[in-house]
């Protein structure tokens, strides 16, 4: 009877070991992660899949919307103006991260960003009356300038960072620094009242932004492995 009882204990012991080994194996085989990030392109929602020990695939959606951001007393050519700005961002990233060192979370990132909408709209108005000799024109009558700047199409991106897309533990943190490499933005410039002639400077503004082909991609993220 004692021998039978001992055999049962041994069987249960090895059965528990087998379950533990199977659980450990399943933990090691977790190859997916979801993440939430925030940064220069707003809120990000991410899905990642492990391809190898050094390579992970990533799919990220970024969204940002800032409405009626006001900046007062901005000096432009000795004139003080107020600027009312709106920014809207919607970008989808498809990319990879490469981990060159086995025991380090340092990584290189690259991919393609689909710029569904990256739009900056600004309204410029005088914040005080305009004086020409003895003639005084109220700031309301002077009019306003509306600048609409838009990036579209697709843009490759590159970057560096720390923190794996598929963390070693269940939770992981990371930070990334990089940039989208885009074509120059499209400019639309309109003006009213006394400032109406300013709209003729659209081509000059377009040329001044011709080299503005980089959109910063900075993210702080938290990932969950499953």
Summarize the structure.
The chain has 226 residues and is of the alpha+beta class.
| Gyration radius, rounded | 28 Å
In what order do the strands lie side by side in the largest sheet?
1-2-3-4-5-9-10-12
For the sheet with most strands, the description reads: 8 strands, antiparallel, barrel
Q: How would you classify the quaternary structure?
A: single chain
Q: How would you describe what is shown here?
A:
- With 226 residues, the chain is an alpha+beta fold.
- The protein has two domains: 1-30; 34-225, Porin.
- It contains three helices and twelve strands.
- It has helices spanning 2-28, 139-142, 202-208, and strands at 32-39, 42-50, 55-76, 79-98, 106-126, 130-132, 135-137, 144-151, 154-162, 171-181, 186-191, 214-225.
- An eight-stranded antiparallel β-barrel has the order 1-2-3-4-5-9-10-12.
- Strand 6 (130-132) and strand 7 form a beta hairpin.
- The protein is elongated.
- The chain starts with a helix and ends with a strand.
- The model has no long low-confidence stretch (mean pLDDT 84).
- This is Outer membrane protein beta-barrel domain-containing protein.
SSE map:
Blueprint lengths: L1 H27 L3 E8 L2 E9 L4 E22 L2 E20 L7 E21 L3 E3 L2 E3 L1 H4 L1 E8 L2 E9 L8 E11 L4 E6 L10 H7 L5 E12 L1
Antiparallel strand pairs: 1-2, 1-12, 2-3, 3-4, 4-5, 5-8, 5-9, 6-7, 8-11, 9-10, 10-12
Organism: Polaribacter reichenbachii
Protein name: Outer membrane protein beta-barrel domain-containing protein
